User: Fold these one by one.
Assistant:
Number 1:
Amino acid sequence: MNTNNNDKFNAKTHMGEGVCTVFLSGELDLSVAPDFRLVMEPLVSNSEMDLIVNMKDMTYIDSTGIGILLSILKARHGMQARFAVEEVPQQIQKLFDMTGIAKFFAPQENSQ
């Protein structure tokens, strides 16, 4: 398990069989974006594993955090590798809906 801790934001990585799940908690904003990128960079490039971001314990995300998620989505799409966002809290889902990005993070069937 790879863990990134600070008082405001936490990302824990769990590797399963063919799946890597990143559990986020706290606030994902400009101040912690470099920490999030450090955790995600090596995972994004591994097209052999499905990549899932679990947002169950997130309390806040700003445009920087959303931008990082979109860049991951774009990179994974380009590699034809699965990327999903799950357990999005209601207040963050509302933001995704209002900005029009919810459709990109909607649950999809694994095409394999």
Number 2:
Amino acid sequence: MKQSVLSRYRVMAYVTAVWLLVFTVAIVMKYGFDTGDTMLISQIHGVLFIIYVIFAFDLGSKMKWPFGKLLWVLAAGCIPVASFFVEPRVTREVKAQLAESDPALVKA
């Protein structure tokens, strides 16, 4: 597995998490304070989440994760701020597995 698979998962985990927070704030503003519209934000987040799911599946299939672990990683993309805690853990685990298989694949 190439380092780029992990890198694009990491980027999309953070981007999706930030947009989920923006979407959450927009929903609170719309229904709590009767201001704003969420259509554009929800569409952007939806597209980004689909890309996140594709990259997470790609990483999971290359790392041969069990289905339960893959669901756990995907669920983190649905819960505001969860990705900020799950992504570093996944990164540590993947880098450790890569270091065991081929130390040249892991960058500092």
